[in-house]
Structure formats: structure tokens, C-alpha cells
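---------- Forwarded message ----------

FYI, see the Rod shape-determining protein MreD record below. Original note from H. follows.
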Amino acid sequence: MNNNQTVKILSFLLLVLVQGLVLNHINFLGYINPFLYILFILIYPTSNNRVLFLLISFFLGFVIDIFSDSGGIHAAASVFLAYIRPPLLKFSFGMLYDYQSIKFNQIDLGNFFIYTTIGVFIHHFVVFILAFFNSELWLEILKSTLFSSIFSIVVILIIKILFSTNRK
């Protein structure tokens, strides 16, 4: 096993443990809950096998569902985010994505912010639409999506800034 694979496995385990043991117990005002584990899906290397990536995303969401006792909503949202990631990357990074040269630890904060914001909002919307599963609760779904997304984006950006190798 090479160093890159070890880093992927350790980051996977760390994000799962932080989400399952710490962040799942944070619930501000009844509808703000950060989902940091999707950072793994967002920064997974673009050049890797797509089918394997979808399976890993499912497994990640499944493990979070076990911690959260949420019946598969995180697995579904994680697979959905992993599935729509290529057009999201193309929209956010353009030519960098076309040439498979995206290095998430070295890209500028502006493009990463756009990419993260769209990805987090999509993921959270799927989570909350499946969690509430009632067409009469649209306002609650949108409110939970908005506030949880903002909180998750802030946490993800803080982590990006702290661990970025592109410090100027």
C-alpha cells in the first residue's frame, strides 16, 4: 500500500469518526447539523476509478447512517453527490477538470468555495428531502438545508485553509 492510499484510508476513518462521535451530536436550534464527512467525497482524486468511487461513497454514507440511525438517507445522498460530481467539477474548474489536473490542496479558495457550496447544498437537500419525506414540509426542508449547509461550508473552508499547501 502506497502513501497516497494510506492518506485516503486515514482521512476516511478520521472523517467518519469525527462525524459519528462528535458532529452527529451537534444540533443547533433543532435544524443545524454539520455534515463534515462529505469532504471526503468532495476532495477524492478525480483520476481514480469512478465505480470504485461510487462504492466508497455508498459505504461512507452507510457507515454514517449506522452512526446516525437514519435508514439510508446519508448513503443515498453520498452516492448522489458522487454521481453528479463530474459535471460539478467541470462547472467549477473548467479546463483544470478537462485535463484531470485538479489538486484540491493547491487550488484557489474561490473555485473551491463555489465547488463546495454547490456540492454541499445538493447533498444536504437530498438528505433533508429524504429525512422529512413530506411535501407539506418544504419550508422546513429548505430551512434545514440552508442553515446546515452554511455551517458545513464554514467548517469545510476552515479545514481547507488550515490544511492547504498553497499558502501565500
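H. also flagged this: The first helix runs from residue 3 to 21.
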